[in-house]
Each structure stands twice: as structure tokens, then as C-alpha cells.
Predict the structure.
Amino acid sequence: MQNTKVDPRIIRTRKLLMDAFTKLTQKKGFKDITIKDITDEANINRATFYSHFQDKYDLIDAGITKEILDSIVKHWNHFNRLNKKTILNIFLTLTEFHTKNTEYITHNVERAWNPLIQ
């Protein structure tokens, strides 16, 4: 199996964009955040944003996915095989993530995706 290494510049740029987006969500709602806001906060240009993400929905999806996977890996690292205890730990990690992020998702993301809620 070929071991492909991701260019560190790609990792750094994606992190800059995700961090900028996270910072902006603390100041304003999801629907009010623009690509310009994100790129200004990250200090990169729009073309760079679009070379990494399709839109802000793609960015939030990537951020949520990364956070979930990071949480699972963090809790899984001390297990050496998949068993009942590991599966329970993964379930609890997902439940904790959901509980921690429900308010944000409900108030910002759902409203942005469904104009009928507003």
C-alpha cells in the first residue's frame, strides 16, 4: 500500500480556514457569515478558499467531521482492538459531541439551511 503524505501547506490552509470560521461563529450567526468574512479572517484570498471548499456548508461539514473523528481517535487510542468497550466509548464520544453542539447547530445551521424556520 502506498503511503501518500498530504502537503503541510494544505493542512495549514485548511486549519486557517476552519479556525477563522470557528472564530466568526462566535461573533455572528452561520447565515450571516460570508466567504469574504472567512477569507479576511484567515488572511487568504477567495481562490484559495475555493480550492479547498465548495462553500461555507462544505467548510462546516469538514469542520464537524474533523472534530468528530478527532474525538473518536482521541478516545480510541488506548484501545488496541474493536470490542464492546471500544464501541461503547465511540458511542459516548458521539453523544457528547452531539450534546455539546446541539444548540449551535439548531440555532445557526438549521436556520441557514431551511429558510422556512426563520
Remarks:
- The CA atoms of residues 3 and 88 lie 31 Å apart.
- The chain has a mean pLDDT of 80.
